[in-house]
Amino acid sequence: MEISIVSVVSQFHRVLTGKRLVFFFQQIAKDVDVEDLARRTEGYSGDDLTNICRDASMNGMRRKIAGKTPDEIKNMTKDEMYDPVAMRDFEEALSKISRSVSTSDIDRHEKWLQEFGSA
Question: What was the pLDDT predicted at 34?
Fold first, then answer.
């Protein structure tokens, strides 16, 4: 069964934040451990997860065009540029993108919600 970036985001959505994240369809390699990614990104905001997935989805293309001239890149077919998003792509994205919301911010938000409710 092939998994898409939408599936990964959907699982992040269910496991982590409750925020809706939308991505273009892109295949995910079989080595991607979504549960591990979910554990490792606990406390990340929806925007943080969006940035991780977006960066991970671009890594395959970056590898494919590395060292090529602009003309060589222009002449590449879509299939030549395609690479499923692999766990190493998520690892690389996680090394560059950290959570933007502190634990104290989350605690304050949850306390506010308990006291005042949501809008």
Answer: 80
